[in-house]
């Protein structure tokens, strides 16, 4: 998945500490649902680097690894989607963390299924998790990685749709999409968000 792996035990060369906040809802009933794509991205990267996301802080589960000699904290807020900002705001106020080095991964109904989009900042776009982060932090200036779940048919019940689990057929697409999303995270950390946006968004993934 990643073009270069770094052993999690090596000392960090770059002092920039990054946060990847994967938004979702805790609990087995929400596993592999559309609204939990942020959690799923965190789990994928954790599996790739053989780290556990289990340390508890700020009502979140956290793991840590190195990517290209930059520290990445993998975060799964346990506040449920609508209160994601409470956990996020608590985390960025501590230690060497910063909103400028925070990537928020979310599902997005406005983006076609199987696609991803990087944005350096922006509105909540109707997403309650992003809305909570904006309200608690007082700013829209944080990186968001949006993972598309838009269906190819009209929706009569949006809430049910986002909380439904993926079908086996769709899950093959989900796995490939999450791999591209993980690579997008690495690009942001190594090359900066503007360059990463030009690569990720240009090829329509």
Can you offer a commentary on this structure?
The chain has 205 residues and is of the alpha/beta class. Helices cover 34% and strands 23% of the residues. The chain contains six helices and seven strands; from the N terminus they run βαβββαββαβααα. Strands 2-3-4-1-5-7-6 form a seven-stranded mixed sheet, with helices on both faces. A hairpin with a 2-residue loop joins strand 2 (55-57) and strand 3 (60-67). The longest helix is centred in the last third of the chain and has 24 residues, at 168-191. The chain is globular, with a radius of gyration of 16 Å. The model is unreliable at 4-14 (pLDDT under 50).
Keywords:
6 helices, 34% helix, 205 residues, 7-stranded mixed beta sheet
What would you say about this model in short?
With 205 residues, the protein is α/β, with parallel strands linked by helices.
Task: Give the secondary structure arrangement, pairings included.
Blueprint: E1 17-22, H1 37-48, E2 55-57, E3 60-67, E4 70-77, H2 84-92, E5 102-112, E6 116-119, H3 128-137, E7 143-150, H4 158-163, H5 168-191, H6 193-200
Parallel strand pairs: 1-4, 1-5, 5-7
Antiparallel strand pairs: 2-3, 3-4, 6-7
**Uncertain ranges:** 4-14
Strand adjacency order, main sheet = 2-3-4-1-5-7-6
User: How would you sum up the major sheet?
Assistant: 7 strands, mixed
- What shape does the CA trace take? globular
């Amino acid at each position: 998945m990643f073009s270069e792996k770094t052993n999690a035990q090596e000392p960090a060369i770059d002092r920039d500490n990054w946060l990847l906040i994967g938004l979702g809802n805790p609990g087995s009933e929400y596993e592999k649902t559309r609204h939990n794509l942020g959690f799923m991205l965190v789990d994928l990267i954790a599996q790739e680097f053989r780290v556990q996301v289990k340390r508890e802080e700020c009502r979140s589960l956290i793991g840590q690894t190195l990517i290209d000699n930059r520290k990445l904290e993998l975060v799964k807020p346990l506040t449920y989607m609508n209160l994601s900002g409470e956990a996020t705001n608590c985390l960025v106020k501590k230690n060497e963390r910063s909103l400028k080095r925070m990537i928020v991964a979310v599902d997005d109904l406005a983006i076609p299924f199987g696609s991803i989009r990087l944005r350096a900042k922006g509105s909540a776009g109707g997403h309650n998790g992003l809305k909570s982060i904006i309200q608690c932090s007082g700013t829209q200036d944080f990186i968001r990685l949006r993972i598309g779940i838009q269906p190819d048919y009209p929706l009569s019940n949006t809430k049910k749709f986002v909380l439904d689990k993926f079908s086996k057929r769709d899950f093959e697409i989900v796995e490939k999409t999450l791999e591209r999303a993980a690579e997008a995270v690495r690009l942001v950390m190594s090359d900066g968000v503007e360059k990463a946006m030009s690569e990720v968004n240009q090829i329509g993934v």
